[in-house]
Design brief:
The protein is α/β, with parallel strands linked by helices. It is built from 10 helices and 11 strands. The chain has a domain at 6-168 and 197-224 and 270-283: NAD(P)-binding Rossmann-like Domain (Rossmann fold, 3-Layer(aba) Sandwich). The chain has helices at residues 15-26, 80-103, 138-150, 175-182, 201-212, 230-241, 251-255, 259-266, 274-278, 288-297, and strands at residues 6-10, 30-35, 44-46, 64-67, 110-116, 127-128, 158-164, 166-168, 198-200, 218-222, 270-271.
Length: 300
Amino acid sequence: MPASRRVLISGASGLVGSELTRALRAAGDEALQLVRRPARNSEEREWDPAAGRLDAAALDGVDAVVNLSGASIGRIPWTPAYRRELRDSRLAATRTIAEALAAAGRGPLTLINASAVGFYGDRPGERLTEDSTPGSGFLPELVKDWEAAAHGAPDRTRVVTIRSGVVVAHGGGFGPVRQLTQFGLGTRFGSGGQFWPWISLHDEVAAIIHLLGSDIEGPVNLVGPTPATSDRVTRVYAQQLHRPRALPAPEFAVRMLGEAGQRLLLDSMEVVPTRLRADGFRWRDSEIDDAVAAVVRGDA
């Protein structure tokens, strides 16, 4: 990658995308944004992923594409219509970008494509690396198809699929945990022994920037280096917010939230960042305590 990079980002208005845009520009790189309306300035490129439309000319001079598009997994319930949206919003965007890369001739050499730890599914008792097999069920199947779509990019393109954990930040996936805790309703879900993969927003963005300059290809687990259980996460929020934890929410109560509640709150995935660690990445927030404290202080 050149010293000053031109990076095209989809999902640039989202939690991670907006912070990535800010960080790249602060480092002297050029961060362009894909938008679903007519471009308003030289930093925007119009596209319509639902229609599979992205002009290959939008990739002229671009060194890398970072695709962060996709409807929120954290929204419940997963109705049949929302399941379709979860799939379509990811697959259509990724296929559109892969096709544009193929049509671009000498286009970007790197595609960093969002993925998720949901690839692994519920795996209690296992330590999950990038070499672990996929799980079964709706989320693992979705993530497998999502990653396959990214690998539809031409062979000349280095494809990295970032299997992110829950991003700890204002507006991140643990937002409901924080809100419940602030109102004195913080609780442990089920046994509390299930592992919740996590990463701070700072480290999520720093890891993506690290991967832009790396030679790594294929899947990379974007998670904190120290796995944390549900019990630990909810306890840390209670400690940092100086609030008590209520009585545990039993599994049968959580299951009443439907499959989404069960998958998001009860599934266990002890995911470890083997490839990121081996590539020399250094985390700012190596413990869930550090990440939550940064959010409470307003630093994330």
